[in-house]
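haha ok so turns out i had the wrong file open the whole time. this is the CORRECT one, sorry everyone. sequence first:
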Amino acid sequence: MEIKRIVEAIIFAANRPMTVKQIIEVFPEIERPDTIEVQDAIDAIIEDYRERPIELKRVASGYRFQVKQELSRWVSRLFEEKPPRYSRALLETLAIIAYRQPVTRGEIEDIRGVGVSTSIIQTLLEREWVKVIGQKEAPGRPSLYGTTKQFLDYFNIAALNDLPTLQEIQEFDLAIDNSQNTKQEESEQQETGQQTNFNQTFAAARTEHAENTAV
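then structure:
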């Protein structure tokens, strides 16, 4: 019970997601629990918060407390600064990188059918959603781009395997088409970017050609 309380306090106080290893290292060396004890504590905390408005969520960088997604649009009203809105071209580029990585800028342009501006790539790099992971063995040795843990954390995804399938994206599109939400509600949904599922981002960003090749 004591370990569970300490683990909960550590994750709650941390300003970043915490892995099991990082949690263990917070304990004095002589008092450090083993990996199984900490994981059991985490699992118990997750269960404790199952019916509460906040949850202990595993993302790519570790575990963090967060408001549950269905409540995020209310909580977002507390903050004057709204999350930035991104262009369709930027989201489309990000989606292609996520599904086709490692991928070059030229390959992204081939899929989209139009050029990718330097500012889009620069914005994705500055946001730390993508990074250069190598160079392709081709004339000019173009950079290969891939997504980062920060990308997964932002979109509330633990691993790339959790990205929606093409069928899920199509079902999401259909649900959007049938939705009777007002323009105001749609705007609020767009502004809760940090809690937005990647289905919405990819569905809003994709083109027909990207849809047929990205998954």
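The chain has two domains: 2-67, 88-213.
again sry for the mixup
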